[in-house]
Design a protein that fits this description.
Number of strands: 0
Largest sheet: none
Strand content: under 5%
Number of helices: 13
Structural class: mainly alpha
Distance between the termini: 14 Å
Low-confidence stretches: 1-18, 42-46
Mean pLDDT: 76
């Protein structure tokens, strides 16, 4: 590998900045093109555009392009503004615009006709595994092994405690008249925290690596426990509604069984596939070395 060359080492600073500028200009061109296509799509004044499945692609492309451009300008001209906070504000504004927009355009149809109506389980299965995998690949495995017990305590008993505390606030303080099972469902939704902004802040202030591992490791595990609690208490709440076919009566032993099936069973399935994938990589490595 002595002939390998790092392109970044051969590039001067102005060349690197120039390449960044070219990329951002291309992204801005794509963004403006998406907005132009989204606005000028009707042929004629009286023709009404019928939503098509291909329109669903417009919103993700638009948001990815907007995110890249926002990241470029924030890191260079406004580094004191957190990227996640800026994207949250932009997403809120785009959602409000789609809700109050009266004129028809492809972007608005892509949001309202497809993404607002997307099935919640499909959204969870499509996006959550990638996010968890991305966090897991960047985790320090040695420190995670050392802090694994603490992460388990944070992710399971503490998530349940947070669910109960949030439910108590919703039950006794909020004047909504919610039942206890609905309050517990509400608490399970808010119990799983997202540490993206916190992790970025810890990186900036130079926090100890073990503290960052505690927060990142807990975030990897709390989604599973919160999902289990949400499943149990949402089923109990749906049973309270008295609608035939909705909800189920889950007692203590049944709840523990569901918890073991979803939490421990999911971990076993993940380990099984990880070992299988590792075995495939080992076989491929031996095969390639033999060919060399």
């Amino acid at each position: 590998m002595k002939y390998s060359v790092n392109i970044m080492e051969l590039s001067t600073p102005w060349q690197v900045q120039s390449s960044y500028g070219v990329i951002v200009r291309m992204m801005m061109f794509l963004l403006l093109s998406n907005m132009l296509i989204a606005t000028c799509h009707a042929e004629g004044d009286e023709q009404k555009h019928e939503p098509e499945p291909v329109d669903a692609v417009l919103f993700p492309v638009f948001m990815v392009t907007l995110g890249i451009i926002s990241f470029f300008f924030l890191t260079r001209y406004a580094p004191w503004i957190p990227y996640t906070a800026a994207m949250f504000v932009l997403g809120t504004l785009i959602g409000a615009f789609a809700d109050i927009s009266k004129g028809e355009n492809l972007l608005n149809e892509s949001i309202t006709e497809y993404w607002l109506k997307i099935d919640s389980e499909l959204l969870l299965v499509a996006f959550l595994p990638g996010l968890v995998f991305s966090d897991a690949t960047g985790l320090n495995t040695h420190l995670f092994e050392v802090a694994f017990t603490q992460c388990l305590i944070f992710a399971f008993p503490m998530v349940l405690a947070g669910t109960c505390l949030t439910a108590l606030v919703a039950y006794y303080i909020f004047d909504f008249g919610w039942s206890w099972n609905l309050c517990m469902t509400f608490g399970s939704i808010l119990a799983a925290t997202d540490p993206v902004a916190v992790s970025a802040l810890l990186e900036q202030v130079g926090a100890p690596p073990r503290l960052k591992v505690h927060i990142a490791g807990e975030s990897l595990l709390n989604d599973g426990s919160a999902m289990v609690f949400f499943t149990i208490f949402s089923e109990l709440y749906l049973l309270e509604l008295g609608v035939l076919g909705l909800g189920s009566d889950i007692d203590g032993p049944e709840g523990i069984k569901i918890f073991c099936q979803m939490a421990l069973g999911g971990a076993c399935v993940g380990i099984f596939f990880a070992v299988g994938l590792l075995g495939i990589f080992v076989l491929l490595d031996k095969r390639l070395k033999r060919d060399e």
